[in-house]
Design a protein that fits this description.
The complex is a heterotrimer of chains A (491), B (98) and C (476).
Chain A: H1 14-17, H2 23-41, E1 44-47, H3 49-64, E2 75-79, H4 106-113, E3 117-122, H5 156-164, E4 169-174, H6 180-185, E5 189-192, E6 212-217, H7 220-230, E7 260-264, H8 274-289, E8 293-297, H9 305-320, H10 338-349, H11 352-365, H12 370-394, E9 397-401, H13 417-422, H14 428-433, E10 436-444, E11 450-457, H15 462-474, H16 484-489
Parallel strand pairs in A: 2-3, 2-4, 7-8, 7-9
Antiparallel strand pairs in A: 1-3, 4-6, 5-6, 5-10, 9-11, 10-11
Helix pairs in contact in A: 2-3, 7-15, 9-11, 9-12
Chain B: H1 11-17, H2 24-41, E1 65-66, H3 76-81, E2 86-87, E3 90-94
Antiparallel strand pairs in B: 2-3
Chain C: E1 5-16, E2 53-54, H1 55-67, E3 71-72, E4 75-76, E5 79-82, E6 92-95, E7 102-103, E8 106-111, E9 114-127, E10 131-135, E11 138-142, E12 149-155, H2 162-178, E13 191-201, E14 211-216, H3 219-238, E15 247-251, E16 256-259, E17 272-273, E18 280-281, H4 284-292, H5 298-309, H6 313-320, H7 323-336, H8 339-357, H9 368-379, H10 385-398, H11 402-409, H12 417-430, H13 432-439, H14 444-456, H15 463-475
Parallel strand pairs in C: 14-15
Antiparallel strand pairs in C: 1-12, 1-13, 3-7, 4-18, 5-6, 5-17, 7-9, 8-9, 9-12, 10-11, 13-14, 15-16
Classes of the chains: A alpha/beta (491), B alpha+beta (98), C alpha+beta (476).
The structure holds magnesium ion (MG) and zinc ion.
Magnesium ion (MG) binds at residues 95, 126, 152 of chain C.
Chain lengths: 491, 98, 476
Amino acid sequence: MAKFADHNETFSLAGLQQGTFSSVEWVTDLLQRIERSDKTINAYISTDGEWALEQAKAADQRRASGEAGPLCGAPIGVKDVLNVQGQPCHCASRILEGYTSPYDATAVSRLRDQGAVLLGRLNMDEFAMGSTNENSAFGAVRNPWNPDFVPGGSSGGSAAAVAAGSAWAALGTDTGGSIRQPASFCGRVGLKPSYGRVSRFGLTAFASSLDQIGPITQTVSDAATLLTALAGHDAKDSTSLKQAVPDYSSALKGDLRGMRLGLPKQYFIEGMDQEVEAAVRQATEQCRELGAELVEVSLPHTEYAIATYYIIATAEASANLARFDGVRYGAREAGSDPLDQYGKTRAAFFGPEVKRRIILGTYVLSSGYHDAYYLRAQQVRTLIRRDFEDAFKQCDALLTPVAPTTAYRIGERTADPIQMYLGDIFTVTANLAGICGLSVPCGFSSADLPIGLQILGPAFGEETILRVGHAYEQSTDWHVRRPPLWAGTAS
Amino acid sequence: MSDPHQPEIDVKYVAHLARMHLSDDEAEVFQEQLEHILEHVRQLSDLDVSGVEPTAHAVPVHNVFREDAVDASLPHEQAMDNAPQSRQGLFVVPRILE
Amino acid sequence: MSDAFKVSIGLETHVQLDTRSKIWCGCANVFGSEPNTDVCPVCLGYPGTMPVLNREAVRLTVMAGLMLGCEINRYSKFDRKSYFYPDMPKNYQISQYDLPLCLGGGVEIMVDGQPKNIRLNRIHLEEDVAKNNHFEGFSGVDFNRAGTPLMEIVSEPDLSSAEEAFAYLQALKQMLVYGGISECNLEQGNMRCDINCSVRPAAQEQLGTKTEIKNMNTFKGVLRSLTYEIKRQIDVVSSGGRVVQETRRWDDEAGVTRSMRSKEDAHDYRYFPEPDLMPVVLSEQEIEGWRASLPEMPTTRRQRFVDEYGLPDYDAGVLVADKAVADFFEAVARDAGNPKAASNWMMTEMLRVLSADDLEIADIKVTPAALAVLIRLVDEKAINNTGAKEVFAELVANGGDPKAIVEAKGLAQVSDTGALNTWVEEAIAAHPNVVDDYRGGKRAALQFLMGQVMRASQGKANPPMVLQALRDKLDS
Ligand SMILES: [Mg+2]
Ligand SMILES: [Zn+2]
């Protein structure tokens, strides 16, 4: 379609709003792009083109009748961990084979209410467990900047699709960095809202006290638009807070005058990738130029965060994933009695990383070890929360790297789980503390792989981090760079 | 965290608690990996946490209730649609021996 | 039971709460629906679903705690208890571990005419599980019951005989029904209990090894299984053996308890705080408000029946034993303006009918209003006692309006002196010997003549008037 020759307009909702193209035209073009790009990156587990076009048609009608909001007709991909009525929800696992969801996740129904078009189901690490998107029963996702590298995880499909131009935006989930890290590895914007900001109802739980749904987008402004639609109290999620939802777009002011931004010294560590450190330092300088005051702060319990996170997350996961037993839904393997059947079903259809985490989580809760591991981790979680409370007394937001490195080569870290886990050091703390975090592109390595800047804000401080992210983004051009795959797929 | 040098996790037993059969090969790999992970995790015992309240929820909210009102249930056919096996309107499992 | 042994029994009683909807979702909390029709993604444990706590389930549990003298925890929370079983939709049960809603308290029972307090350890709130059905070659699960609010009342091992356990359950049931906490309908599984039982030589301080009898759903079963189990344990110990700590199953047909798996899996419930539910914090004000709204308890009501209606203590006790019977009585007493007569009717006719046909008072066709009308008819002498009994029988059989029945059956009492005099004169004329006996000082002869008159009137004659007329004639 000539209209989308360079494909850049399609990343602004303005085209829809101004009538340059219709949602049906946009979705038609995207479905072709998905087909082409997914041969390389494998971002989608499934698409339902007919259904997507139906939604697009309805959105166009709604827009024509003049009652359309900003998201009407916007094509969005959904991570395979979110329930959409009438669609499968595999969580990238074989154990949910055959399952069709009878209901919509609240985040999904809020997008639908606005007239957004759901394109398909995005690949991910099985049950959101992983940092590379190599743990998927539907095959690894590849990084659009270089298919020999991982896109990050667990929302790897979401980040790769947005980076490759095969979705306008995508929903991801973040339990320990699963939105921010793949957004960073793929050179896009990723927002993890504060715990309780977006309803988790319909999100297949990995770790209930850490999970949050958020957008992966091309720009900070798009993230603000999506958060405005997603956020707010939901009676079906007891942990969603009754806080008013501001119009996040109006928080994007363009400069950082009068803001104090903290640099946590524990987040600029030895052994960090030099190029990453240089790019992030450069970004902090840029923020200073935009009017912010930089202060050094301390988050003294950072070194304990990985241990704390992997105890709490796996403990909760071991219970959350107990329901997959092949009785009410999903795949089953025959057994001689119910418990034998469970043992065989769960052995046959869970992947290795999921099994590893279920075992770890079961262990840290088990009799004799509960207090030493689980209870202690909960106590350390309190210390980590306090670190942030203290830090936010000294500054409005924190600037840090998203990850110590750029994207890994496929297969590079699969053999040693602990090395993989340690890569989450800068992201897990936000989930433990319940605060919000934003990942924005801030440069490239010499290998042409994206680097991300993380902006952390206090709980329910999304306006602050969006303002910082937006001001920084607008003063750079990292976010408008396109991966090689993008050009290759343009029609 | 008793003796830091003693492998304390019995992967096969823990997998049994989680109702997940493991092959011998799997058990061997997991045993080594999990010991390695636990070695790292054990650093938490360095911290003095006496008197520190545990955090179970990231937000301090209480008393979230629903009112006692009946909503529509799932139509029976839809409830059974996802069942791997059903009979007489019931979800089938191998016979439970009491 | 042998005096050489002491018995210690503790009960964990599960009571389904009388809410409209389930504990975490809006599915109806009802009994007897077609399998898997009162289910939704939440109570089927679908991926992505979350529980939201039913406020009424909390209120009812706290009300039960207040009735039973528990201390109410101001801060309470929910925990996940992990174990895999087909009746568990999530393979963990949401329950309360270290901070239940209620702590302590007690239940008073009567033992040999003396009150005995059975201490409670705690009451916590949790979700009921699904129901497994067993067939040839497979089992099938019905999730209608899954997510029914369930209160678990844990007693201390203060019960020392099967009879005490039985009395404890009855007392508990009576109070819970009084409080509107649960219907405690045993047929519908509203009340089920697990029994912990141990014996020890009388001289021994420390409790003996206990066994657990799981999932009893009738009080008679509790009585019988404990009678058996106590004897079994005493036999084991007496013959030099040791009781094995294990779970046993009651075989009702055979009348024995049986060991369930010989090597049962060690349970490791891996409790941890439920991340999807926020803690419950109760204010002083709220708890005191609920305390003030507590319904009258049976013992208080019994005393009030004595004080207010002048009933004998025994009668008051009988009437309050069943809340529905007591409610019925009070309605009749109020309407009829004659508590004494209301009590007499309840104690004799009503309870006889209920026990003869094994009925609940709710099942009976007589309404309190109808019985009150009947009492008024007697009081107004519009009908005599014989007639009243006939009307009552008709009310039991078919219900209806007592006045209409009196009319239809022609039971109106005859107080017309003309008719009475005729029957009296006929009776005197027909039995001259009896008349002589009476006049000779045999007072009982009067009763005979009275009977003759009543028979002649087909029971409709007003008895005091007949008596008066006979005396007038014979003594003149
Ligand atoms: Mg229980
Ligand atoms: Zn339900």
